[in-house]
UniProtKB/TrEMBL annotation:
Annotated compartments: Cell inner membrane
Protein name per the record: TRAP transporter large permease protein
Family statement: Belongs to the TRAP transporter large permease family.
Species of provenance: Castellaniella hirudinis
Species lineage: Bacteria, Pseudomonadati, Pseudomonadota, Betaproteobacteria, Burkholderiales
Description of how the protein assembles with itself and partners: The complex comprises the extracytoplasmic solute receptor protein and the two transmembrane proteins.
Highest taxon of source: Bacteria
Role of this protein: Part of the tripartite ATP-independent periplasmic (TRAP) transport system.
Pfam families per the UniProt record, alphabetical: DctM
Record keywords, A-Z: Cell inner membrane, Cell membrane, Membrane, Transmembrane, Transmembrane helix, Transport
Amino acid sequence: MTDAHIGVAVIAILMIVHLVIGLPLFLVLGLGSLAMIVVAGVYSIDIIGQVPFTAVDNWALLAMPLFILTGDIISGGRIAKALTDLGEALLGWVHGGLGMSTIGGCFFFAGTSGSNSADTAAIGKIMIPSMVEKGYDKPYAAALAASGGCLGIIVPPSLIFIIYGVVTSTSVGDLFLAGVFPGVLMAACMCLANYLVCRYMKWGVQARTTFSARRLGEKAWAARYGLLAPAIILGGIYSGIFTPTESAAVAVAYCLLVEILVTRGLSWKAVPDLLIRSGNITGMIGPIIAFSILFGEVMSVLRIPDALAEAMISTEMGFAGTVLAIMALLIVVGCFMETIASIIILMPILMPIALALHMDPVHFGVFIVCTLTIGFITPPVGINLFAASAVSGVPYPAIAARIWPLFLGLMAAATIIAFVPWLSLWFR
C-alpha cells in the first residue's frame, strides 16, 4: 500500500468522525474531496470550483425545489384532508381500518407531494387525533403516520428518485414509473402489519365502518383535485407533453391554483411563507448534492468503488448473498444518515456492484430507495419519527418503541422488491 493510499484511508476515517460529531455534510464532502485530491495527487485544485458548479447546473435537478414547494402547498391546504377521507372510505370497514386509512391517505398524498416529511406531517395532523379518539394507542397512531410517510418518496413523483437519477444518470421518468407497484406493495405490507397488531391488541374496534360504494364514490369525487395531480404529472411526462422537470412546475401551478381558487385552503398571502420554507430546504440540500458529485468523481478516479465491487463479488456470496449484504448495509446506514446523503455517498460505491450483478439501474434504484426509506422510521435519525412527534406531542422514544411491526412490514416489502425485478420494470 502506497503512502497516497494510506493518506486517503486516513481522510476517509476523519470524514466519518466529522459526520458523527455533526459537521455539516457539504463541508465534510468538500473538505474530504480537497484533501484526497492533494494527498493522492489527482486532478487540479481548479476542479473544486468546476465540478460542484456543473453538478448543480442540471436541468433535471430543477425539479427538486419545485416538488418541495408542491408538498408545502398541499400540506397547508385542503387537498390532504380530502385524500385522507378517501382512504378512510376505502379501508375503514376492515379491522384496523382507520390505521389502514392513515396509510392509504399517505399513499394518495404521496402522489402529489414527493416528500416523506410533508406526508407524515400533513396526514398525521388529521389522522392521529381521529385514531386516538377511536381507541388506538397514541404512540402507535403516531408510528402509523410516521411509517406511512415513507411512501412519500416511493410513489411518483419522488424527490429521492430525482436525486438518484441525477447522481447515477438514470432516467427520472423511468424511475417514476418503476415506483408505482413497489409503493403499492409497501402500503399493503404496512396495512397487513397494522391489521395483525390491531387484531392482537383489539385497537380500533369501535372505529370500523360499513363499506359503502356510494360513500366511496362521494369521497373519491371530493378528492378529485388531489387524484388529478399525479394523473396530470405522469400523463404529461409519458405523453411527451412535458419533461419530468417541467412536470414539477406544472405540479406547483396546479396545486397552488386549486388550493387558492377552488378549495380556498390557502390565500395569496401565504405564498411568500411557502416560498421561504421551501427555499430553506432547497438551500440545505443543494450544496450537499454539489460536493457529493465532486466526492464521487474523486473516488472514481482513485478506483475505490471498483476495488470494493471486486472485493464483494470475489467473496462468492452469490447474487442473493450480495443483495442481502447491500440491504443490511443500507439499513445500518439509514439509522444514522439522511436518505439523500446516503444515496449521494453510496451510489458511486454500490452501482458498480449492481452492474456486476447484472441488476438494471432502474430496478436497483427502486431497491435502494425502498430500503433506505426504512431509515425514516429507525432511530437515532428517523426523521419521520421526529415529524410524527412534532404533530402528535408524543415523545420520540415512545413512537420508536411502537414502530417495529411496521418496520418488519417494510423490510418484507424491500426484500420482495429486491428479488422480483418485474415489480420495478413492469413497463418495459
